[in-house]
Design brief:
Elements: E1 2-5, H1 8-17, E2 21-24, E3 29-33, E4 36-40, H2 45-56, E5 66-74, E6 82-90, E7 96-97, E8 108-114, E9 126-129, H3 132-139, E10 148-156, H4 167-176, H5 178-195, H6 199-211, H7 216-231, H8 236-241, H9 250-266
Parallel strand pairs: 1-4, 1-5, 5-10, 6-8, 8-9
Antiparallel strand pairs: 2-3, 3-4, 5-9, 6-7, 6-10
């Protein structure tokens, strides 16, 4: 599991629980241990995305679990409540992401708004932070989106504003939820092992994306299509070499591959 966390006070309970050791100081503090990595990004969507990119450069395999964990304000949830982001919206661009919901059903789902500065305009059904959108945008480039999630613990609400919150309270809130967080992390780690694409798929994906230009969305679609062919037990090399149809870019290649898969599905 790869944790991207904004502040040391939010990270400390996990570092202790999983006995992680500091392995890097600059440009980000990075901790590792017990098959986990934890990087402290600092505040803001840009720093969170940069921390993801830095950690990605150190990993040997793709499609690992990624978790942005920390505190967040919320319009109506109780202080100390834990929620997973079902929609992550950016305050500036209005762009939204919808992480697939695969976590334990006991965790409440809420919309989360990523703001440029601390916000105290509480709205019902809405949480707000400063990192989630940048984190999700970056981490989902390196891992299947099912394995990229945002989990927040409510630190302030209309009854108790952020002005009354202290950094000491952060550790307490996260420690109080560690049993549930550990259950989620274990479940998630096992799930990531199950869905990680085989190396043959990753090899083909690298070869194809180095030959044709793919957008981020098309690159994800290509991996999904290759996995679909693999589940059908098709010979991928033969499928890709069959016949000759010139293509100019990744979009055309993906269309060709989809067509060939559809033909194979119709065969008796």
């Amino acid at each position: 599991m790869n944790f991207v966390i904004a502040h040391p006070s939010e990270a400390s309970p996990l570092i202790q629980a999983y006995e992680m050791k500091k392995v890097e100081v600059h440009p980000f503090a990075l901790y590792s241990g017990n098959d986990h990595n934890l990087i402290i990004s600092g505040s803001g969507r840009v720093k969170s995305a940069a921390a993801c990119a830095f950690l990605m450069g150190r990993l040997k395999t793709r499609d690992q679990g990624w978790l942005n964990l920390g505190i967040a304000g919320h319009g109506d949830m109780k202080i100390g409540s834990l929620f997973v982001a079902g929609r992550i919206r950016d305050e500036v661009s209005e762009e939204s992401f919808y992480p697939p919901q695969l976590l334990a059903p006991k965790i409440q789902i809420s919309e989360l708004l990523t703001c440029s500065r601390p916000c105290q305009e509480y709205k019902k059904g809405l949480g707000f932070d400063m990192e989630a959108h940048g984190f999700y945008q970056a981490a989902s480039l390196f891992s299947t989106r099912e394995l990229v999630q945002v989990v927040k613990i409510v630190s302030d609400n209309p009854d108790r504003s952020l002005e009354k919150f202290t950094h000491e309270s952060t550790c307490e809130l996260i420690e109080r939820n560690m049993a549930l967080l550990d259950e989620v992390i274990r479940q998630w780690s096992a799930f990531s092992e199950e869905i990680r694409p085989p190396e043959s798929i990753e090899r083909l994906h690298r070869e194809i994306t180095s030959k044709y230009r793919f957008s981020s969305t098309s690159s994800h679609a290509l991996r999904a299509t290759l996995l679909r062919a693999n589940r059908m037990k098709l010979d991928l090399d033969s499928l890709l070499d069959k016949g000759h149809a010139p293509v100019r870019n990744g979009k055309e290649f993906l269309k060709l591959l989809d067509s060939r898969l559809s033909e194979s599905e119709k065969l008796p």
